[in-house]
Amino acid sequence: MMEAQGTVGLSFVWQNRMELPMANIGFIQHRLGRTDGVSLEVDKFRAILERNGHRVFYLAGNEDVPGGQFISELYPFHPVTQRILMNATRELKDYDSPGALMAEVRAHSDLLKPGMRRFLSENQIDLIFPNNLMSVGYNLAGMLALHEVIRETGVRTVCHNHDFWWEDSGEVYPTCPEVVSFYEEHAPPTDENVRHLVINRIGQAELKARKGVEATVVPNVFDFDRPSWVPDDYNADFRASIGLGENDLFFLQATRILDRKGVELAIDVIAELNRPENRRKLESSPLYDGRSFGPDNRIVLVCAGYVEGIGLSGTYEQNLIDKAAEMGVEVIWCGDRVKHGRGTDAHGKIYSLWDAYVGADFVTYPSYWEGWGNQLIEAVFAKLPVLLFEYPVYVSDLRLAEFEVVSLGETLAGRDARGLVTVAPERVREAAEGVMAYLQDGKRRAAAVHHNFEQARKLYSYDALEQIIGRILAENGLNLRAEG
User: Fold this and answer.
1) Is CATH 3.40.50.300 correct for 238-459?
2) Of 27-36, 319-328, 472-481, which gets the smallest average pLDDT?
C-alpha cells in the first residue's frame, strides 16, 4: 500500500558525507507551534528525531514556541511582511510599481539573513528542514533570505513542501509578472545542496513537470500508539464551557477557518438535518450511544480552529456567519479557547485540539483543497465518523486507504452570491441521510470507525514516517539512531 501511495526512496547522495553520531537538525518556518498542519507535522518529525537521539532546533517568526528561536520579521503578521504578502498575492496597491514592491522584499530580506545565519552557527546545524516557507509563497522576504543563506553557507537542506504557490487553493494569486518570476526562481529552490519532500502525489508530479525535480512523498502521519483521547477531569467540562447540552449533537470543524476549508458545506448538511422530517427521524429512536435526542436539543457546528488571516479573501468568516444565520444553523466559534496544548491565558482555561474531539459526535471535513488531511487522520484516530468532500488529494492519495466516510462527492456545483462553494442539492440530502445512519446505528458506526482506525494505523503511523526519516538521514551520512 505504501508503494501505491507514491512514497519512494531518496535517489541522491550528498557530497562530503559525514558520519556523525548525533545531528543538530533545524526546522525553519514562518510560524510554528500552532494547530495548523505544518506545525503539527514538524512536531511529529521532532518527536521521531529526538527519540532516536538527535537534537532539534526551531526557528520561526512567532516567539511563543517553547525552546525555539524567533525572528520577528519572519512572522507572517509582521506589518511589513503582511503588507508585502497582500500586495504580492492579492492586490498591488501600497507600492507605486512592482519594482518598489520587490525592492522592499530585498530590504526586508536583508534584515532576516543575520538571524538565520546565527541560528545555523550558534546551534551548529548539520541539516535543515524548511517547510512551507520555501514553497507556498506567504513570506517572500523570508524565502529570499533563506534561499541566499542556503546558497552562501552550503548547509544541507531538505525542503518539506506541504503546499505550492501554483496550486488552486485560492490563497496565492501573484499580482504582477515580477512576483511570478520571483516564485519561479525561489519557490522552491533547486540548488545542488537542496532536496525535496512533498506530501502528496499531485505535488510530486507537478514539481517534476515544472522544475524537473524528483521528490519523495511523505504522507502526513499520526502517532497511533499514543493513548486514546478520552474524557478526563480537564476536558469533562468542554461541552458545557462552549454552551452545549449533554444531548445536543456536536459536529466538530477542527480545521483553521479559511476559504478553502469549505465550512459552508457543513452548514448546508446541518441545515438539511434540521429539516422537520429529519429531526423527527432523529427523535424517533436513541442515538448511537443511548442518548435521546428530543425537540429541545440542538444540532450545532463547533468551529474549534482559529480564523486564518493570511492568503485569504478577508470576508470568509463573516460570509459563514451570514449564511448560517440565514439557514438557521447554530455555529459556536471557540478557536480562541482551543490551542496547541492545554493551559490558561488572560481569558481563562485553554483546551487542546485533542480535547475538542473527545465530546464530538461527528467530524466535518468539507475542504475542497487540502495538501493532505491532518484533521481527517485525527478524526480517524479519535474513532469518529467523518463528513467529507472528496478533495483532489483525497482522490489521488487517501482514497487508497478505503476509509468509510459520508461523502459530499468530488465535484463542486459552483458558488453562491457570497462566493461560497456549493454542491448539488441531492448530494447534501444523501450526505444528511448518511450522517443520520451513523448517529442512530451504533453497530454500523462502531464497525466503520474501527475499520478506519486500522487502515490508518497501517499506512499513516509514526513507524511509517520513521522509516522515511531514516532514509533521509542515511542519504546525509547520518544514522537514524544516534550513538552516545
Assistant:
1) no
2) 472-481
Q: What is the pTM of this model?
A: 0.80
Going 64 to 308 to 360 to 47, the CA torsion angle's sign is negative
Distance CA 293, CA 247 (A): 6
Task: Count Cα neighbours of 258 within 13 Å in the Cβ-side half-sphere.
Answer: 17
Q: Where are the alpha helices (DSSP H) in 252-371?
A: 263-273, 276-283, 316-327, 353-358
Would you tell me the crossing angle of helices 140-153 and 79-89 to the nearest 10 degrees?
100
Average pLDDT over residues 34-44: 86
Residue type, 447: A
Query: What is the distance of C-alpha 401 from the center of its chain?
Result: 19
Q: Which amino acid makes up residue 370?
A: E
Q: How wide is the angle at C-alpha 242 spanned by C-alphas 292 and 439, nearest 5°? A: 30
Rounded to an integer, the average pLDDT of 72-82 is 93
Residue 369 CB partners (closer than 8 Å, separation 6+): 167, 168, 169, 170, 260, 391, 392
pLDDT tens for each residue of 106-124: 999 999 999 999 999 999 9
C-alpha cell at position 340: 496547541
pLDDT digits (tens, 9 = 90+) for 297-312: 999 999 999 888 765 6
| Element (DSSP H or E) covering residue 85 | helix 79-89
Report the alpha-carbon distance of residue 79 to residue 411 in Å, rounded.
Answer: 38
Same fold, 2-221+461-474 and 238-459: yes
DSSP result, 219-254: ---B-TTSPPP---TTTTTHHHHTT--TTSEEEEE-
Task: Specify the 3-state DSSP secondary structure of 354.
Answer: helix
Q: Where are the domains of the chain?
A: 2-221+461-474, 238-459
Checking if the pLDDT of 415 tops 60, the result is yes
Tell me the three cell numbers of residue 333. Answer: 466559534
CATH architecture of 2-221+461-474: 3-Layer(aba) Sandwich (3.40)
Mean model confidence pLDDT for the chain: 91
Burial class (CB in 10 A: 0-12, 13-18, 19+), 15: exposed
The three-point CA angle 239-375-354 to 5° equals 40
For residue 368, pLDDT beyond 90 = yes
Residue whose C-alpha is closest to residue 163's, from 133, 208, 193? 133
What is the model's pLDDT at position 6? 38
Query: What is the C-alpha separation between 113 and 123, in angstroms, rounded?
Result: 16
Helices 37-51, 374-381: axis angle to 10 degrees equals 60
- AA letter at 329: V
Contact 10, 475 (CB under 8 A): yes
